[in-house]
Write the structure tokens for this entry.
Amino acid sequence: MNRRYRLTKSTDFKRVRRTGKSYAHPLVILVASPNDRLISRFGVTAGRALGSAVQRNRAKRLLREALRSYLTAIAGGWDVVLIARSALIEAEWNDVCSAVANLLRRAGLLEEAS
């Protein structure tokens, strides 16, 4: 993912978690908070409860790739954090994509043109 679309600082992650609204799915949790920019930025996390470093990194790669197809359809002005859940490890690729799309729709981040 292009650097301008990424949340990079831990303070940004903490702010989004503290002030944002969360939307849950069995595979992923989405937390969205408005920002004062023209573009939306995204961060992906996976806690240690998910498993080993290999499993956590795979979960984050899956979420980043699922999010990539929606980048052009997402409204600007949001900071979004995706948090992987343990069920994501065994999930099929189509399930991951539909989970991300479902959460983006519920949060109102997808523009109508998509």
